[in-house]
């Protein structure tokens, strides 16, 4: 007698397995979808800050933007994300917002110096140094912002699309 001859089709077992499989599938999808929504929302908030405050380019606005981006990186870090690729997006976005925040600090300091510089040969030298710092840090900030934008596009493409 073969092993398969003793097995009988059990429709109740099949239903239980099907229900469990569907429930697990829905839970994992909704979890990924919820994690996507949270992560996309926070990254979008950071990008909105950059877009809204960048044109002001004064010391106070730049310092404020640096602080707010640092706070956003901390908020993103507190998210509990189960999906491995989403964890990678999370880690990369945290780092990018921190890098951008840290890059804005010397810009803020240079702008503060430039606003307070005296009209003198020493003042002119300080102004030139501040300008150099702003240009260098500004270039880095632009690169980081571009990487952040590319990461955001990848994230949106990775996340499941909501159907109407």
TrEMBL record:
Q: Which PROSITE patterns match?
A: PROKAR_LIPOPROTEIN
> Would you say which domain of life the source belongs to?
Bacteria
| Name used for this protein in its record | Lipoprotein
């Amino acid at each position: 007698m073969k092993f398969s001859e003793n097995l009988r089709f059990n429709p109740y077992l099949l239903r239980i397995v099907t229900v469990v499989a569907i429930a697990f599938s829905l839970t994992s999808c909704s979890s990924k979808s919820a994690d996507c929504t949270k992560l996309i929302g926070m990254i979008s908030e950071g990008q909105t800050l950059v877009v809204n405050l960048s044109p002001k380019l004064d010391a106070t606005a730049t310092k404020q933007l640096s602080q707010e981006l640092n706070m956003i990186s901390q908020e993103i870090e507190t998210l509990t994300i189960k999906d491995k690729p989403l964890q990678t997006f999370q880690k990369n976005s945290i780092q990018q917002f921190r890098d951008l925040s840290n890059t804005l600090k010397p810009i803020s300091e240079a702008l503060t110096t430039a606003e307070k510089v005296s009209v003198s040969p020493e003042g002119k030298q300080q102004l030139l140094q501040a300008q150099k710092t702003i240009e260098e840090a500004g270039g880095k900030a632009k690169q980081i912002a571009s990487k952040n934008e590319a990461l955001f596009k990848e994230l949106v493409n990775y996340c499941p699309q909501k159907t109407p």
